[in-house]
Amino acid sequence: MKFAFDLDDVLCNLSPQLIAFYNKTFGANIVRDNITNYSLSKQFKISPEDAIERTFQFYKSDYFHSASPVAGAQKAIDQLAKKHDLIVITSRPSFLDEKTHIWIENYFPKKFVKIIHTNQFSKEGSDMTKGDYCREEGVKALVDDALENILDSINDVENLLLMDAPWNRNGELPEKVKRVYNWGEIADFLSKINE
Length: 195
Description:
Layout: E1 2-5, H1 15-26, H2 40-44, H3 48-59, H4 62-65, H5 73-81, E2 85-90, H6 97-107, E3 114-117, H7 130-137, E4 141-144, H8 147-152, E5 159-163, E6 177-180, H9 183-191
Parallel strand pairs: 1-2, 1-4, 2-3, 4-5, 5-6
Helix pairs in contact: 5-9
């Protein structure tokens, strides 16, 4: 069976690094629990172009390169990879492909059969969504922290897990979507899925 995972804030604990970078670089005082919108431009009240530019600055920083895995992810992925084909579908731009592969191989060596960049956070953008890639890849489950990606995949993926984060707590979830709070819950749920 094939399962898909978002990278940032599902496998890679990136938001603390982004917040530290943003606070230091732009003199802000952002706290993770106060981030209530997945869209950086809406959250920080800047243009989409400025949000992309600031994100690109972050990608070049030491903050970006020093992110560690989300607690419990390595153990869970190690167990899941023994029985399933695992893929990463990340919104990162494709110019980060090499750095992304290096990070994944450093923390999750030989666990993922494919890594896909959607270019969502890119100047070029992409016509394909995570839902499109999930359908194309035939995945049975998607784990993501962006509610918009989960909702985009609702007709294409049987099992949708939303990793809890302050930016995805607005409103009720569709019945098909399960909110999860840690990798123990994710591993438990995915290990019970039958072919």
